[in-house]
Design goal:
By secondary structure, the protein is mostly helical. The chain folds into five domains: 131 residues, no CATH class; 220 residues, hpI Integrase, Chain A, CATH 1.10.443; 62 residues, Orthogonal Bundle (Multidrug-efflux Transporter Regulator, Chain: A, Domain 2); 91 residues, Multidrug-efflux Transporter Regulator, Chain: A, Domain 2 (Orthogonal Bundle), CATH 1.10.1660; 63 residues, no CATH class. 45% of the residues lie in helices and 9% in strands. A three-stranded antiparallel β-sheet has the order 1-2-5. A three-stranded antiparallel β-sheet has the order 6-8-7. A hairpin with a 4-residue loop joins strand 1 and strand 2. Helix 1 packs across helix 5, helix 7 runs antiparallel to helix 9 and helix 24 packs across helix 25. It starts with 27 loop residues before the first helix and ends in a 9-residue tail after the last helix.
Length: 675
């Protein structure tokens, strides 16, 4: 291919003379290669990795489709591009044509995501724009005009769309994930979840980037690491390095105030992994997150794999939550946390996450970071408050230990590393005599609760867990001191979900009941479950018994109307005229109740046929009804509230009267399910 810069053209009244066929090969492969070489290699646009990525897009998606069907760029038509986009989206149309067999094979699998298709369309437009600028095609030639990247159909999409609305990972959930990671990977997790770093930024932090002034600390974000980077040396030569001082954008360079809890974690990590026990000096040039095979190399892939395994084990993986769960979600989570803090200004949030303070010229060019980093102090304090209220510490105890490769500096000083980590309470051994690890059965015994309750508390973070491997099986364990701490905390209080289970009602019902009664609710610092004092719990029990007694002696006006075969408004007028008696009490719905005795009296006086089944004292536990009928707990309780089923009053566990069950299941009387 002849160099484009060898062209010679004379300027006349017509304009420059375009090059002839002998001057330049105008096929799409040649023009695409020349565009990338000119824009990315010669003009140093972005970095070498970006040039490689653009070439890959062209060779993977663009060239296999257009090269077999065209001789020059001028042969590309609108309908050819249209068919190409549909093919990428997994919706090929035979009437629009198709590429050769080789092209079809290269474009598999079909149903690419919309962002990938948009990148392919962007690359094609880049080639066409270069061709117009160099005179290869006419100035107005653009067969992509009016076309946009289509979205694939869900049935053929290579990446399935999320089935649920994405949400952040809470700090307690991240603590559960951290309990399944060894300290090195925990360090990577918290740098993203608390400091909001991108994964390459987290692995690019050096020991020297952590400035510890005692009371406060600063984190300088000025490098990337954790994988191989292709960069240019001072003379322009491309080299492969494991750490680069070039960030994703110019705005990514920033200084962050470190929250106190995060600074506590960083101090332990620096002392354990990077400080000489004899001299007390740390290696400032060392990477803060050490590699497991080589001290300052790689790490991202191992962390991604460990993170995926930990989230899946905790029921927080992509398949469990219904949306994509990756380490980048950690950065999104802290961004969401501070986005809803009214005391943090929008520009400060943007700078904390490594974006420009604003998108206008003033924000991009003239707005510099505060010289004293005063706004960042507020962010650090807000994050500290969230940590204190939820999990208390970032040093999450774990039974996993990092395995260092032979010749690794940390392996040579393994005893020192272990001593520092153990002293900080970062790892635990199952055989600790003073603070042993307890399984579910012992937790239940120490707290005096059922196994199911202990298992739920261990799962939702009410009691912090560590994950250990015993007899070839990984399981959750709890430190004995944490069990006793929870026992002391719950000595004079009870968790609201447990009280709901005790009373046999749904959680939202008892929550609304507590709010209506004006009871003070406190959140558990880890699980964030509401808890109340025992005195308030007793008041809720009494109120629940009152409501059950109310339903036993009275019924809602709507139920009475159905019993008598009258309109609701008619029964309301009857209650107003005192033909039937209003009950002075009500439940949380605020509806008016009339006594069952007055309804029966009115029925007897007016000769209305009895539709009420006689009360039978036998009771059936709700669990048995669920098992035999296949109905859910929610459905059955809805039938109770509708007056179709009767609940036995005064029982701590939910039981239904046999009479109401018999009438409902046979479809007779007033207990038949309304249509």
């Amino acid at each position: 291919m002849t160099n484009i810069y060898a062209w010679s053209a004379t300027q006349d009244s017509v304009g420059p003379i375009p090059p002839g066929p002998s001057a330049l090969a105008a096929d799409i492969r040649s023009v695409g290669d020349l565009w990338v070489a000119t824009a990315y290699d010669d003009l140093r646009r972005a970095g070498p990795d970006r040039a490689t990525q653009v070439r890959w897009i062209l060779n993977r998606y663009v060239n296999p489709w257009f090269a077999p069907q065209t001789g020059t760029l001028g042969d590309i038509t609108f309908f050819m591009v249209h068919a190409w986009l549909l093919r990428l989206a997994g919706r090929p149309r035979a009437d629009l044509g198709r590429g050769t067999r080789d092209g079809d094979d290269a474009l598999r699998p079909v149903g690419l995501s919309q962002p990938v298709i948009a990148d392919a369309l962007w690359a094609l437009r880049g080639v066409l724009a270069f061709a117009r600028a160099t005179g290869i095609v006419a100035p107005g030639f653009d067969p992509t005009q009016g076309l946009v990247a289509p979205a694939p159909d869900p049935a053929t999409a290579r990446t399935k769309p999320p089935t649920r609305q994405p949400r952040p990972l809470t700090l307690p959930e991240c603590a559960r994930i951290a309990s399944r990671l060894h300290p090195v990977h925990q360090l990577a997790l918290w740098l993203q979840r608390v400091m909001g770093l991108r994964i390459s930024e987290a692995f690019g932090v050096l020991v020297d980037d952590v400035i510890d002034d005692g009371d406060t600390g600063l984190l300088l974000v000025r490098g990337q690491g954790g994988r191989a980077f292709r960069v240019r040396d001072a003379d322009g030569t491309i080299a492969t390095v494991w750490h680069t001082e070039r960030l994703k954008t110019a705005a990514a360079y920033r200084a962050l105030v470190i929250p106190a809890r995060m600074l506590e974690l960083l101090r332990v990590a620096i002392e354990a992994f990077h400080t000489d026990a004899d001299t007390g000096d740390a290696r400032p040039e060392a990477r803060l997150i050490p590699g497991l095979r080589a001290a300052d190399q790689a790490g991202q892939l191992a962390f991604r794999q460990a993170f995926a395994r930990a989230t899946a084990a905790e029921g927080l993986g992509s398949a469990d939550l219904g949306f994509r769960v990756t380490p980048h979600l950690l950065r999104k989570s802290i961004a969401t946390d501070i986005a809803w803090r009214a005391e943090i200004q929008d520009g400060v949030r943007r700078r904390f996450m490594g974006h420009r303070a604003a998108d206008d010229v003033y924000g991009r060019i003239y707005t510099l970071d505060h010289p004293e980093l005063a706004p960042m102090i507020g962010v650090a304090q807000a994050i500290d408050a969230m940590i204190d209220e939820s999990i208390g510490t970032l040093l999450v105890p774990t039974g996993r230990r990092a395995h260092w490769a032979h010749g690794h500096p940390a392996r040579q000083r393994a005893d020192e590393v272990r001593h520092v980590i153990d002293a900080a309470g970062w790892t635990l051994e199952p055989g600790d005599v003073d603070n042993p690890l307890c399984d579910t059965r012992r937790v239940a015994g120490e707290l005096g609760v059922a196994l199911t309750t202990a298992r739920r508390w261990m799962h939702d973070g009410t009691v912090p867990c560590v994950t250990t491997s015993q007899f070839g099986r990984r399981q959750r364990m709890v430190q004995l001191r944490d069990v006793w701490s929870l026992r002391d905390r719950l000595a004079d209080r009870i968790l609201l979900p447990d009280l709901a289970v005790e009373l046999g009602i749904r959680y939202h019902e008892i929550y609304q009941l507590a709010r209506r009664m004006g009871l003070d609710l406190e959140r558990h610092p880890t699980s964030r479950q509401f808890e109340i004092p025992l005195e308030s719990a007793q008041r809720l029990r009494q109120e629940h018994e009152r409501v059950m007694a109310l339903h036993a002696r009275s019924m809602k006006i709507a139920v009475a109307a159905r019993e008598l075969g009258l309109a609701v408004s008619t029964v309301g007028l009857m209650a107003k005229r005192r033909d039937i008696d209003l009950d002075s009490e009500t439940d949380s719905s605020g509806a008016r109740f009339v006594t069952r005795a007055s309804v029966n009296r009115y029925r007897n006086q007016r000769g209305v046929s009895s539709r009420v089944q006689p009360f039978i004292g036998a009771a059936v536990p709700l669990a048995n009804v669920i098992r035999f009928t296949g109905r859910s707990r929610t459905e059955l309780l809805d039938l109770v509230r509708a007056g179709i089923l009767e609940q036995v009053p005064g029982r701590r566990s939910c039981e239904l009267t046999a009479a109401s069950l018999q009438a409902w299941m046979t479809g007779s009387g007033s207990y038949s399910t309304p249509r």
